[in-house]
């Protein structure tokens, strides 16, 4: 299964649409916050895809949850914007939260810096910001052979 992971769209409907169209095999889109309005519009525009999202620090008045969990093919994913876990200062708190939930994957945004790593059974990914200069997104592939994270720059 391919999952498209985006964050920090900050009003950029066009970049979110471009990312979704660039990944036609993605069955699920996870939005990591700071772009609730675009998230909701994309969800309506692409009814064939599943959408999950959380609120970010710039999603004022949002009813979206602060964190989310999703399990598929025996893999548990924990996702959050990251501001409530202090990810700009370090990943320790977010990693602990993911491990406490038994997750194999931690997805977060907020820093606008793309990042991927593997730490003792936990895959970590921040897709970076999908708006502005250096816009990009991430893909998460769950296969019988394992988990693959990938960072992609928008052309």
From TrEMBL:
<comment type="similarity">
    <text>Belongs to the metallophosphoesterase superfamily. YfcE family.</text>
</comment>
<dbReference type="GO" id="GO:0046872">
    <property type="term" value="F:metal ion binding"/>
</dbReference>
<dbReference type="InterPro" id="IPR024654">
    <property type="entry name" value="Calcineurin-like_PHP_lpxH"/>
</dbReference>
<dbReference type="InterPro" id="IPR029052">
    <property type="entry name" value="Metallo-depent_PP-like"/>
</dbReference>
<dbReference type="InterPro" id="IPR041802">
    <property type="entry name" value="MPP_YfcE"/>
</dbReference>
<dbReference type="Pfam" id="PF12850">
    <property type="entry name" value="Metallophos_2"/>
</dbReference>
<dbReference type="GO" id="GO:0016787">
    <property type="term" value="F:hydrolase activity"/>
</dbReference>
<feature type="domain" description="Calcineurin-like phosphoesterase">
    <location>
        <begin position="1"/>
        <end position="134"/>
    </location>
</feature>
<protein>
    <recommendedName>
        <fullName>Phosphoesterase</fullName>
        <ecNumber>3.1.4.-</ecNumber>
    </recommendedName>
</protein>
<dbReference type="InterPro" id="IPR000979">
    <property type="entry name" value="Phosphodiesterase_MJ0936/Vps29"/>
</dbReference>
<keyword id="KW-0479">Metal-binding</keyword>
């Amino acid at each position: 299964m391919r999952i498209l992971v985006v964050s920090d769209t900050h009003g950029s409907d066009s970049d979110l649409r471009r990312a979704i169209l660039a990944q036609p095999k993605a069955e699920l889109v996870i939005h990591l916050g700071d772009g609730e309005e675009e998230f909701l519009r994309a969800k309506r525009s692409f009814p064939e895809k599943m959408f999950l999202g959380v609120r970010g620090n710039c999603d004022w008045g949002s009813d979206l949850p602060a964190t989310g969990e999703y399990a598929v093919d025996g893999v548990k994913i924990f996702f959050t914007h990251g501001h409530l876990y202090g990810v700009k200062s370090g990943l320790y708190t977010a990693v602990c939260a993911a491990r406490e939930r038994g997750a194999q994957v931690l997805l977060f945004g907020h820093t606008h810096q793309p990042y991927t790593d593997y730490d003792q059974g936990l895959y970590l990914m921040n897709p970076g910001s999908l708006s502005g200069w250096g816009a990009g997104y991430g893909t998460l592939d769950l296969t019988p052979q394992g988990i693959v994270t990938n960072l992609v720059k928008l052309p």
